[in-house]
Structure formats: C-alpha cells, structure tokens
Design goal:
With 69 residues, the chain is α+β, with helices and mostly antiparallel strands. It has two helices and four strands, in the order αβαβββ. This is LLM class flavin-dependent oxidoreductase.
Length: 69
C-alpha cells in the first residue's frame, strides 16, 4: 500500500466513524421524544419517515443517523 492509499484509507475511516446509524422502535410518542432530544443536542443528521412494524403491532420504526462528536 502506498503512502497516498494509506492516507486516503485513514481519512475515509475517520469520516465513517463520525456517525452512528440505528433503527429505533417504539410508539409514535416515544419516538418523537427521542428524536426531539437528538435534535436538541445537535447530533441528529437524518431521520427517516415512520414505518409501521406490521400485523397488529402498533409500534413504528425509524432510521436515525447521529453525529458521534
């Protein structure tokens, strides 16, 4: 691996490590509280639209991307 390739790989890893991605599951009210808290701290980068779990389960799931720093 050349010096340039090592530098690029290190920079790519640092960019990738700046975010945490997760699915959260809960009632719409619980999800709203979690998303509000993440947005107030300035860590919220992206939040998906709510998706129902399916069947007779009334919970929803949402995808979040948060800054780690």
């Amino acid at each position: 691996m050349t010096t340039r390739e090592r530098a690029y790989a290190k920079a790519s890893n640092q960019r990738a490590n700046q975010y945490t991605e997760m699915w959260i599951v809960g009632t719409p009210e619980d999800l709203a509280v979690m998303i509000h808290a993440a947005s107030q701290t300035g860590r919220l980068v992206f939040v998906s639209a709510p998706h129902q779990m399916g069947g007779d389960d009334t919970r929803h799931r949402r995808y979040l991307r948060l800054r780690t720093r």
